[in-house]
């Protein structure tokens, strides 16, 4: 089945130790997103790729970086995780419609714990 | 800037009764409207969308929503609630033109269906 896959599902890291979360998709969608979600709140967009174009949200900390080496894969790098970065990280994909965005397909998420 | 309001943090309904989860939006231009559901420790799952056409949209698991342009609303409804419908529901809007193609999410509504 076509889907969005995130690895790992659970990640434990130490304060200040870099961590990388991965996302892959078999949907061949041109738009990919990374969201941070805390405590049943609305997902907060960190950045997105529209094809190869990287778009950073204005309030995304510099501590967060992303890479998209090809259409299928996208990575979220947290350079120096702090306790406040503990959250669920969601990857999503979509295709664009005429001027807009179609349905987003979400991965199962990676729950990050920072000790 | 576009926005979504979900005025209720929580909706309680008895199993078998109809349910409504409210959503209103503000956007420049024509809206694309979506409902997603999230179960604990999972990613968001698509329920239904309005892009164009009939104002009444039918989606997964017996849910439906009505696009009301004059009231800028897109309330989610189901004629008969199930305990298994208990989850977190998010409304989202993106703009077909004149606004942001990136979806904006509401803060979410927790639906609790009592046996």
The total of beta strands of chain B comes to: 12
Most residues in contact: chain pair: A-B, 26 and 26 residues
Largest sheet of chain B: 6 strands, mixed
Order of helices and strands of chain B: EEEEEEEEEEEE
Query: What is the straight-line distance between the termini of chain B?
Result: 41 Å
Strand content of chain B: over 45%
Mean pLDDT of chain A: 92
How would you describe the oligomerization state of the chains in this entry? heterodimer
Radius of gyration of chain B: 14 Å
Please give the alpha-carbon distance between the first and last residues of chain A.
36 Å
The string of secondary-structure elements of chain A, in order, is EEEEEEEEEEE
List the total number of helices of chain B. Answer: 0
Brief overview, please?
The complex is a heterodimer of chains A (115) and B (115). Chain A has 115 residues and is mainly β.
Topology:
The complex is a heterodimer of chains A (115) and B (115).
Chain A: E1 4-7, E2 10-13, E3 19-25, E4 31-37, E5 44-50, E6 53-56, E7 64-67, E8 73-78, E9 87-94, E10 105-106, E11 110-114
Parallel strand pairs in A: 2-11
Antiparallel strand pairs in A: 1-3, 3-8, 4-5, 4-9, 5-6, 7-8, 9-10, 9-11
Chain B: E1 3-5, E2 10-14, E3 19-21, E4 24-26, E5 31-38, E6 44-50, E7 56-58, E8 64-68, E9 73-78, E10 87-95, E11 104-105, E12 109-114
Parallel strand pairs in B: 2-12
Antiparallel strand pairs in B: 1-4, 3-9, 5-6, 5-10, 7-8, 8-9, 10-11, 10-12
How would you characterize the overall build of this protein?
The complex is a heterodimer of chains A (115) and B (115). Chain A contains no helices and eleven strands. Chain A is mainly β. In chain A, strands 2, 4, 5, 6, 9, 10 and 11 form a seven-stranded mixed β-sheet that branches. In chain A, strands 1-3-8-7 form a four-stranded antiparallel β-sheet, with no helix packed on it. The model of chain A has no long low-confidence stretch (mean pLDDT 92). In chain B, strands 2, 5, 6, 10, 11 and 12 form a six-stranded mixed β-sheet that branches. In chain B, strands 3-9-8-7 form a four-stranded antiparallel β-sheet, with no helix packed on it. Chain B has a two-stranded antiparallel ribbon with strand order 1-4. By secondary structure, chain B is an all-beta fold. Chain B has no helices and twelve strands. The chains are: A mainly beta (115), B mainly beta (115). The interface between A and B is medium-sized, with 26 and 26 residues.
